[in-house]
Amino acid sequence: MLYGRAGEQRRLDELVTGAIAGRSGAVLVRGEAGIGKTALLDWLADRASELGMRLVRVRGIEHEADLAFAGLLQLVWPFQRRLAKLPEAQADALRSVLGSGRDRGTDRFLTGLAVLTLLADLAEDGPLLCLVDDAQWVDQASAEALLFAARRLEAERIAIVLAGRDGAVEDGSAFGGLTELRLSRLGHEDSARLLRVRGHSVAARSRVIAESLGNPLALIEFADARRDGNHDHPPLPVADRVLARFSTQIAQLPERTRLMTLIMAAEARGDLRHQMRAAERLGAGVADLGEAETAGLIQMIDGVLSFRHPLIASASYQNAPLAQRIAVHRALADVAEDPDCRARHLVALMPDPDAGIADELAEAGERARASAAYGAAARLYEHAARVSPANRQRASRLATASTMALAAGRFALADRLAAQAGRRPVEPADRAALARVRAAVLVDDDDLRGAARHLLDEARRTTAEAAPALLLAAAHHGWLACDASLVRAAATRLTALGRAETLAQGLAELCDGDYARALPTLTESLRKHLASLSEAAEDDHLHSVRQLAATSAFAIGDDAAALALASAEVSRCRDGGLIGELPQALETLSQVQAVLGHHREARAAIAEGKEVAGDTGQRHRLTRLYGVEARLAAVEGDEEHCRRLVEEAPRRSLGGIERALVLLDLGLGRYSSALERVVPPRHGPERVTWLCTSVAADQIEAAVRLGTPEAVEVHLLSLDAWAPPVAEPWVRAVASRCRALLSGREEDYTRALRLHAEDGRPFERARTELLYGEWLRRCRRRGEARNPLRSALATFDRLHADPWTHRARAELELTGETITAAQATAGKPADRLTPQELQVVRLAAGGNSSRQIAAQLFLSPRTVEHHLYKAYPKLGVGSRRELAGLDLT
Questions:
Q1: What is the pLDDT of residues 504-543, one digit of tens each?
Q2: Fewer Cβ in 10 A, N or C end of the chain?
Q3: Beta-carbon contacts of residue 311 (< 8 Å; ≥ 6 apart)
Q4: Which residues, other chains included, contact 35 with Cβ-Cβ below 8 Å and sequence gap of 6+?
Q5: Is the distance from CB of 165 to CB of 32 less than 8 angstroms?
Q6: Nearest to 481 by CA among 436, 443, 532
């Protein structure tokens, strides 16, 4: 029986009963050592058994925290035969975890999806409870896969409960962001009840309760110690005093029994066969465990030999002499059958420089890299560097470790490892890698200029082969920092190297305001890079080119190219498991989707980008994603959400949000604010951004509505310069619309509408139609005004652009057209669905099976069916066959 946990038991009971009813969920239980996390999980396991749920358990092991997929191996091992039921790619991903796949998979998103599908498949046999104890010690690769699955639970009838120590989970675990259940210490009454049922006297209870401070494990151990005649407790924190109690008990065991408990603690997996082989080498055996079992320190449960509490393992390991610990790890390494297991024990040997051990650790790091377990790879390469005899090899392995940490999204670790490598003689190629790490850290610290300058400096010190990639990245960061001098410097250096890249040159020309020359240069370059998208981007130079190409495409308003390039970049990050780079790719993708009117898709990309950026601590990227989200809120006239984004944005650089507020003000009729909020930049990337995001057009419209068109004549000159004949159709259309606003000429309106017919920015087209319809009505051409106003109203309604919808509807009514309630609320069938329902329905309408849809959207097949079940009545259909006839655009 548990005492003082009624509230926690109730919440967990609601979780499992909800899972049985089809509402999956996940919870992270947190608390200090000894607070009762494992006891609560044991109670929940019994409760789930009573309810008929199936149970799977995983336990984090301290010594395996750097061993890729060690935790996932525990989950997958009992269900190897079920892998054949998974989609082939997912089955291969989990077989590689088991070490039996054809090769080591590199897509950790696929691994996470495979875990979700496996759990969902197990839940087909009945509701499933997955328990993960000591989550703070689950290796990062396993933690990411489990978190991926936990965050996508919906209708699978699965409950996942993880338990981890306070502090340790915050500092290194990937489980942040889950719903939390924090365990507090027991009150006096519950503490007394616990001691009473264990047979302790009233006299002993008061003293023990005071000493234990409400920690359940401390209550039990301190009370037992007093009963054994030990009344002395050192003035230490509760957990340390409990550890001291266990240390005393272990010290009283025979020498060979202590050796056996040390072997158990060092091996940590509970692999009795492995433990016994090592024990045999050290002159001990299973018979020597008897007294530890009699003392209640170890126990056998379901054929697995384990410590009664993890602190007993810690006490056994920490109190053993260093030489004995090293001997035990040496024996465990020598008898290990798995090379990754051997590597883990080699790390623990803390050897002097040894080329053989260093090579083995580096090979283990390479296996982790091949499995996209970048966090584990970073640690293994770091250990390999520590024992590498040669200084240059040590620097090279530290450089590799830093790049692996960056790929894992662990920026602080990457920076520390890069700094260590930089203090040693570094090969030019490694110097380039370290430069990219340092630049990424500076970007994350919101210092884009510093990142660009660092890359420019380091490009001088590296090889001619590596320098162009650094210079392209410098141009990219310089552009995003709105620093024209840095863009020009990068372009000039590339030309001097004989590697002139037209993307960088074109951006430099944009910075100089030479739009007529820059736009053809960039357009031609983008066509070339679009044609090469089918080629694998395996080198740093091509990665840098494609990142710069996506930014360049958006900068000149080439939405089709930007969408293709950004989509390819997102796919590259997913396929390579590059979680550190994914938020930037999702930001670019969401920007393009937003202007193309794909608001649901943009919100899905923003949500994922924010989730990953938050998990990896990329506050700079979070702010930029907030800016894209603010743009959507501004279009829809959601002032409350827009304001909240301004308040919650974690960084100072709020340019994207400020530009969105101009559009919000315009839509809500606050024209003075729209005109005054952003001062037109004079030159460089910031001026291009002001033009290409239509802020100039927004301010022109605001000035005209205020009756002060003379205030924005310079804006029109800027737009005319930005919209030469080679510019994108939407750019020329917006320029014509603004010219029409200032001149009142009908031919400018009609030219704008002809140009809009060639582009894909529906919001801009609808704004032109609205203004033209208003102009026609004022000219008393009400019949002619209705068609553009109807079209504008339909588009605004589809985009949920409420202020603009109200304005278009009011104008249409002024033409004499009556709009019924049904017409006012009518929309396309797709408008009735949530973003995820729409994604599922579109794929289903295309003939994809539930398993195929699940694989594409990172969901389980059951959740796909759940979304279809909810979507059918909204669409007025009853089956997949009927979806093909619907307009789902």
A1: 889 999 888 888 888 998 998 898 888 877 666 556 667 7
A2: N
A3: 33, 34, 217, 239, 242, 243, 246
A4: 183, 184, 185, 215, 216, 217
A5: yes
A6: 443
Q: Say if CB 458 and CB 467 are below 8 A apart.
A: no
Residue 844 to residue 880: CA distance in whole angstroms: 7
Residue 165 bridge partners (DSSP): 31
| Residue 26 contacts residue 180 (beta carbons within 8 Å) | no
Which residues touch 194 (CB under 8 Å, ≥6 apart)?
A: 3, 186, 216, 219, 220
Buried b (16+ CB within 10 A) or exposed e, 4-34: bbeebeeebeebbbebbeebbbbbbbbbbbb
pLDDT for 578-600, tens place per residue?
777 888 889 999 999 999 999 98
* Assigned token pair, 60: 């984090």
Residue from 621, 520, 607, 537 nearest 572 by CA: 537
* Sequence-ordered alpha helix ranges (H) in 152-215: 168-172, 188-197, 202-212
Q: What is the pLDDT of residues 103-158, one digit of tens each?
A: 444 456 678 888 999 999 999 999 999 999 988 888 888 888 898 889 888 888 99
Distance between CA atoms of residues 384 and 410, nearest Å: 19
Both tokens of 811, joined, read: 């104008």
pTM: 0.71
What is the CB-side half-sphere exposure of residue 154 using CA atoms within 13 A?
16
**Cα distance between the two ends of the chain:** 57
Contact at 8 Å (CB) between 616 and 583? yes
Strand, helix or coil for residue 351: coil
Q: How many whole angstroms separate alpha carbon 375 and alpha carbon 578?
A: 11
For residue 759, give the DSSP letter: S
Token pair recorded at residue 265: 């603690």
Q: How many CA atoms lie within 13 A of 150 on its CB side?
A: 23
Q: Which two tokens stand for residue 498?
A: 């004989």
Alpha carbon distance 279, 857 (integer Å): 49
Classify strands 128-133 and 298-301 as parallel, antiparallel or unpaired. unpaired
> What is the number of residues in the chain?
889
